[in-house]
Specification:
about 180 residues, mainly beta, 5-stranded antiparallel sheet, 3-stranded mixed sheet, 2 helices, about 10% helix, about 30% strand
């Protein structure tokens, strides 16, 4: 079908990845050639069974980010809600054609945390920081906004599966 007929972009399966490894968790997807004003992706809960090594929170969450703060404190951010992610064309529309078909959906991980000081949040009884629908909810709201704004769809001219500084940005994430 044409892009106007298209349903949401579906990248099947659960993705569990090490965000520090730039090649980890790469997923391939196809867009039908044509002009696009936007693409929508759905972030859904994982359900069971979870793959080996996946955080238990993924059973009831659509996104879980775990790591260490700059001071070495463990943290977990869990988005319980499913969400639609709209990736909107920067210049009104963008063209997907065979010669422009290597696209990268990129997340700027540093931007996810740009409006949150995890070390300033009160730790739980085990010393870790938790950000979810029940704990540190203001930080969760800031994370969700930063998460969407940190998403870019770009043309991967050199085929390295990374959106490099000199490569064209076609669309950016925003709240639906």
């Amino acid at each position: 079908g044409s892009p106007e007929d298209m349903e949401d972009l579906e990248i099947e399966g659960l993705i569990v990845t090490d965000l520090v490894d730039t090649r980890a968790g790469l997923q391939q997807f196809m867009l039908v050639p044509g002009d696009y004003s936007s693409v929508r992706a759905e972030l859904s809960r994982a359900g069971l069974p979870l793959p080996l090594g996946a955080p238990a929170e993924l059973e009831t969450s659509s996104l879980v980010v775990q790591g260490l703060t700059a001071s070495g404190r463990r943290f977990t951010i869990a988005l319980d809600d499913e969400m639609d992610i709209d990736i909107v064309a920067a210049m009104g529309s963008f063209l997907v054609a065979p010669e422009r078909s290597r696209l990268v959906l990129s997340f700027d991980i540093a931007q996810w945390f740009s409006d949150i000081d995890l070390d300033a949040l009160a730790p739980s009884s085990d010393g870790s920081v938790r950000v979810d629908a029940d704990t540190n909810t203001d930080a969760l709201t800031a994370f969700e906004a930063s998460f969407l704004g940190a998403l870019e769809l770009g043309l991967d001219r050199n085929g390295n599966a990374t959106l490099d500084d000199d490569e064209e940005r076609l669309a950016r994430g925003e709240a639906p």
